[in-house]
Amino acid sequence: MATPLQQSSRASTQLGINALTTAHQAIQRCKTDVDTTAGALATSYSAASEDGREFQKLLRQWDEQAQIILNKLQGLIDNLNQTMHSQTGTQSKNTEMVRTSQNASDSVFNQLSR
């Protein structure tokens, strides 16, 4: 039987993964929308004009910053997935150790009670 702490930790880790995945997907959608809009507006803003250059600079900067955020979020998601995998392995090892101890205890008791 798993302890409440381990279960809570696993549930909390899964909630964190879900929240980060939702944020990652939302930012990716925004990035795609901005890229689509930028393509449409790029024809309206001439790169030869000052406002056109500033607009393109702004879009490049936003895209770079959005990509950094996406990369950091993915790193957090990957780390939490690894943490949850480790928790599951630890929980399984602990459960097996308890079962082995119980079997040994039962065996000793059976021999003593004969």
Descriptive terms for the model:
mainly alpha, 114 residues, 0% strand
Written overview of the protein:
Helix 1 packs antiparallel against helix 2 (50-112). This protein has helices spanning 4-42, 50-112. Helix content is 89%, strand content 0%. With 114 residues, it is mostly helical. The two termini are 30 Å apart. The mean pLDDT is 82. The longest helix has 63 residues, at 50-112. The protein contains 2 helices and no strands.
- Overall geometry: rod-shaped
Kindly report how far apart the N and C termini lie.
30 Å
Fraction of helical residues: over 70%
Order of SSEs, N→C? Answer: HH
Radius of gyration: 27 Å
Number of strands: 0
* β-sheet strand percentage: under 5%
Largest sheet: none
Derived structural class: mainly alpha
- Estimate the mean pLDDT confidence: 82
Low-pLDDT segments, ≥5 res: none
Number of helices: 2
Offer a quick outline of the entry:
The chain is built from two helices and no strands.
List the helices and strands and how they pair.
Blueprint: H1 4-42, H2 50-112
Helix pairs in contact: 1-2
